[in-house]
Amino acid sequence: MTIINLTEQHQWVQYPAFFNAYPIFNEISGVGADVGAGTPESYGEIYLDDYYGRMFDQKSQIVGSKYGRSSKMRHYLKIPSMEIVDELRVPYRRIPVFLAKDKQTLTMAIEEMRLTNSDHRVLLRGQTKTYLVQRPKEESTHFYGEETVKEPSFLPSHVRNKFDPYFLKCMWQSQAAILLNDIGYDLGASAYARLTDFRSSPMFVLFSLGIAQHYGMPSVGLDLTDQLDVACWFATHRITTSSSGLAQTALVDLHSGATPTVFVFRCPEDAVFRYASIKQPDLPTGRPDRQSAWFGHVGWGLSLNQLASYLMCGFRLTQEIMNDLDPALDRDLFPYGPDDYILNHFLKMRAMEKYEGEAKRALGGIYYMSD
What we know:
Elements: E1 3-6, H1 11-14, E2 34-35, E3 46-49, E4 54-57, E5 63-64, E6 84-90, E7 93-100, H2 103-116, E8 121-127, H3 137-144, H4 157-160, H5 165-187, H6 189-199, H7 203-215, E9 222-225, H8 228-236, E10 237-241, E11 246-251, E12 261-267, E13 272-274, H9 275-278, H10 287-290, E14 293-296, E15 311-317, H11 319-323, H12 329-333, H13 341-351, H14 357-363, E16 368-369
Parallel strand pairs: 7-15, 11-16
Antiparallel strand pairs: 1-3, 2-5, 3-4, 6-7, 8-12, 9-14, 10-11, 12-15, 13-14
Helix pairs in contact: 5-6, 5-7
């Protein structure tokens, strides 16, 4: 991904919202932009930053540091009881990373953010490390006024693994359709009719995205949660998967360079959905239920790193919080065998010889935990 030069006649320029580009041109930071420090010779008459779908034209070219220079910006928010130990940069905001010393203070901080952002959905994502966008130095200087900044990367798996998103959509829906057919057949005529009707509803697309993402198939979305314990578990546990799909978990070692972090996102209601809100009553309990799953369909089209634009802050977890986690939580978060009908379906599909090429590669991401 890099800056893409366009013309006024290009379809992305004519219909930006259709391609998930930001519909307003030339949005410049109100703090930290450098008027007169632009580099108009570097880019074309219209250019796109496809991490966020932001477009700029010649009117903006005299302005440098379009996303704001960090040294001139305040942190997006402050929590008086917490120390800032790191910071990240996203367009127009300087994001603090706080040190979370105990679970009670962390819980209270997140609840306060939910109360003060009631018009948005405040959701969490735990990671054992912070992945960063790798921009050319000239791009970073153009947008942020510095050759390097810590710009977090929340790219969806279809981008990281170089899958065609339209192909994947067909894969999710075909697999979900087979799954619902099998469940309906097992449960009887009335359940079969209800699930057949569900396949024709708009919610079926979201359902197929949700289960694909949670069981390991690449997708255009990212999994989020509204539960702090779930986010903390993913922040503090590495998952390694063998070629057969068998996954093992291990607690991270803070002395080995791990930076377990719970990220907090302020998401527009129409950019995320809760698995429980679309799950049909006939469907069995699975991973998304146990992990209180939400999904952000925020990595498609011309805004591949869109989730980063919703980032409020991060919380770096300490050993004290790691010690406070339930050691048996992984068994609850990842039901196995007869406890997870959906997993069994995917494992059966993964093992079928009829799948080849990109279909086989997509199903190869399915993983399971052993008893």
